[in-house]
Structure formats: structure tokens, C-alpha cells
Amino acid sequence: MSDEITKDSLDPIAVIHVGFLLMPEYTLSTFSNAVGMLRMANRLSERDLYRWSIYSVDGEPVVSSAGLEIKIDSALNQAEAVNMVLVCGGYNIKNYCTKLVLEYLRSFANIKTALGGLCTGSYVLACAGLLDGYRCTIHWENLASMREEFPKLQLSSSLFAIDRDRYTCSGGISSIDLMLNLIASIHGHQLVQQISEQFACDRVRTEKDAQRAPLHYLIGASQPRLVDAVTLMESNIEEPLTLDEVANYVGISRRQLERLFNRYLHCAPSRYYLELRLSRARLLLLQTSIPVIDVAISCGFSTAPHFSKCYSDLYGKPPSNERRAVR
């Protein structure tokens, strides 16, 4: 989470005005989850921390992918005094990236308005050139095609991404996590904890939480050896293979293996393997009562201190604290 969010973009004292741009066939649940977090922040703080307006490109009603319409406040170019514009996307987003909507969004960027994309809304921002140089994400079904179309984007498979004044999430309930992290950065974690309790959220996920997506959607179907390598890693968690063994099994050199991981998954294979094991460990900590040392061994760590250090480096807390938080 960037410190610049509060310092440069959003004032924690003033009421923050969020504009939601609804694109045709937008995902209703992703939009309503985002609004719900802002509403609850106002209710629990007993003052108006946030207000929101709903826009379409032309001011006319927009039908969601669920077939429902929501009242529109105005056309996007008539929006006044908004601190942030969030583009709400959904199905067939490419069909709706008109020259007009791209021009409107660029005009907001020119006056330093914070911008974001919910679900496939990120695609609209990318088409406008407004995600260049920013870390961002999009729904896993669109990751591979997005990488092909915009190879210079810092695209990740995380649930959401906050980079300076750009806010993107992958859709579904990830808009809850995006908005809670935004609220925490401006109005503190205590308020977010209260909101989470109201919505029965057991924890607020972070940018380090990845989307659970089939690998061929993350990288496309053109790299079968990379898919085979990851499948091998996933099948050998308790007794990790060496990188030479992985490369051998899939029929390429270690150097080729490293190139594939760096190009398509944006990390070294050793790092990917480590995070895969730690992700499995986290699920065991959150969902079972298995002793921490047994979790470590089942995920390929020979000593508890090494496991604890690796876990803390990735998740910001030792495994014992993760288990304690669940309890």
C-alpha cells in the first residue's frame, strides 16, 4: 500500500467523493461490494467519510451482466468534484472501449484524479494508456490476453493492486479487499476491522494474495513446458525438487526454465516454488489445527526457524501469529 495515497491523493479530513463509471455488462456484485464498504464506513464512523455518484458514458441507464439497471446520476463528463473514478467492467469489455470514454478518462488523469478499474475496468484504463508504468491487475480470465495486448504493463495475478493513484482489482469479492485496504490507508485499520466484523469477513486480504486461477489463463496456452513445470512443483510440495530436476523432467535446460518463469510469471522459478509452498502452508494454518512444525515439514521446510523467516518475509507476520489471529 503506497504512502502517497493519503499524502498526495486523498484527504482523510474532507469527504471523499468516489465516482463509479458503469460500463455495459458490468459485474453487479463487484460494484455493489465496493459501494457497500463505503456505506458501512460512513455508518460506523457516524459521519460522511465518503459519498459516491454513479455515471455512464452518456448519462443513459446501463444494463449489468445480471440484466439489472441502476439509476445513473449523470454522464461522466458532467461529474463534478470527484476524487476518484472507478471503472466498473464486466463481459465483452473490448466492445465498449469507445474513443469518447477513453478521452473522458484521460481528462480526469490530466487533473490528477485518482483512477481505478474493477473487474475488467482495468482494460479500459489500459486502452487509454493510463496504466503505463503502474502495477495493476485484472480478472484471471483476461490476464493472458491483456499481457499479449499490453506487454509493457506491470500486470500481476494478485487480487488487487494499489500503486500511487491507481486502484485495480480482479473482480468478484476482491472489490471488498480493495476498498478495505483503501479505507485503512486513509481512515485507519480500526475502522476496517469494524467493517469486516459487520460483513462477517474473517480477514482482509492483501495485495500479496493471488487469484486462484488455472495457469493456462495466467500465461496462455502457448507455453506447455511452463505449465508442466508448475504442475510438477504443485505435485512436489513436501519434498521439493531442485530446479535442475524440474528442467530435466520437462525437457529443457535450467536457463530456459528461468527465462520462461521470468517472462511469463515475472519471477524466478525458485521464488515461484517458494511462494507456492508458503501459500499451501498458509491454507493449512488458516483451515486446520495442525501444529506449526508439522505444517512446515509438510510444505518442504526442514526447520521451523527457516519456515518462520520465509513466511514472515512474504506475509508480514510469523506463522504462529497467523494461527493466533484465526483463533
What does this structure look like?
With 327 residues, the protein is α/β, with parallel strands linked by helices. It folds into 2 domains: 4-198, 3-Layer(aba) Sandwich (Rossmann fold); 223-326, Arc Repressor Mutant, subunit A, CATH 1.10.10. The chain is 49% helix and 12% strand. The chain has helices at residues 4-9, 28-45, 99-110, 121-127, 140-149, 174-187, 189-198, 215-219, 224-235, 243-250, 254-265, 269-287, 292-298, 304-315, 319-326, and strands at 16-22, 50-56, 74-75, 84-88, 114-118, 135-137, 154-156, 160-163, 166-169. The strands form 2 sheets. The chain has a 7-stranded mixed beta sheet, sandwiched between helices. Strand 8 and strand 9 (166-169) form a beta hairpin. It is globular. The two termini are 26 Å apart. The model is unreliable at 1-7 (pLDDT under 50).
Mean pLDDT metric = 89
The CATH top-level class label of the largest domain:
Alpha Beta
User: What is the alpha-carbon Rg in Å?
Assistant: 21 Å
Write the CATH fold name of the largest domain: Rossmann fold
**DSSP E strands, number:** 9
Order of helices and strands: HEHEEEHEHEHEEEHHHHHHHHHH
- The structural class is alpha/beta
